[in-house]
Amino acid sequence: MNAPHAFQAQVPEPHIRVEGVNKVFATGDRTVTALQDIHLDIPRGQFTCLLGPSGCGKSTLLNAVAGFSLPSSGTIAVDGKPVTAPGPERGMVFQEYALFPWMTVEDNIAFGLHIKGMSKSAIRDRVGELLSMLSLGDFRQRFPKDLSGGMRQRVAIARVLALDSPIMLMDEPFGALDALTRRNLQEELLRIWSGLNKTIIFVTHSIEEAIFLADRIVVMTYRPGTIKRDLLVEIPRMRDPAAPVFNALKRELGVMVMEEQQRHHTDELRLAAVD
Ligand code: ADP
Ligand code: MG
Q1: Site residues for ligand 1, CB cut-off 6 Å
Q2: What separation in Å is there between the alpha carbon of 25 and the centre of ligand 1?
Q3: Are residues 186 and 73 in the same domain?
Q4: Boundary-marking domain end, from 164, 196, 212
């Protein structure tokens, strides 16, 4: 039964279409079905969270949409165009800060713009805009090693925003941050997302993070990775994690995620017994 705040997702026009996607990995004499028969239509501007415990194929699905690792079968298309490789319309933010350590904050953000062949003055304007959007102005001349985790992740986000990709793919981007910094960046991301009309697919194993951020939560199962539940979060933003409606959804999702965590655990015990 659905709670009153959670409806089955009904999506009008597809922007990102995932159709019958399977992904099988072969490792030694074992094969792992990381994704099985995934169907997902994501409209433009939606903030979708892929939620599930570790090992249920969240990163595999995100990497397939990014074009880093293609499905074994099935198709993924963006605006009707099949995804066969990474592309500028899909920006990726990883958990590990993928910054160039030898470049300043400013140069890290500007990097993609130079590649694009943008003029020096246009780059200066754009970088200035992003530094202020992400409160990085005072850090423009610093190097990544001299920044906190939260600041580094801001730079990583600014770098993807610089390219103006309509789609942002984020793989547990705040997973390594302390709670306060994490909440800060979540709020900032929501602000940026609502101002810039980006489509975001955000991977997390945190139920609270998913409810705080998402329009839509896609819960995945552990091996094979399938879609267990696909629901819209109808709580007005900014959402208050202490509110009863937030907690009701948290409990409901908690049960689902726990079941998958349990399957993961059982599977690990079984594999340990085989070895
Ligand atoms: P999640 O991001 O939800 O933690 P992943 O997508 O990383 O899950 O992995 C899903 C499953 O696929 C896991 O069982 C993992 O061990 C397996 N897997 C992921 N990548 C590879 C790979 N390159 N080779 C073999 N198995 C992989
Ligand atoms: Mg992952």
Answers
A1: 25, 27, 32, 34, 52, 54-60, 223, 225
A2: 8
A3: yes
A4: 164
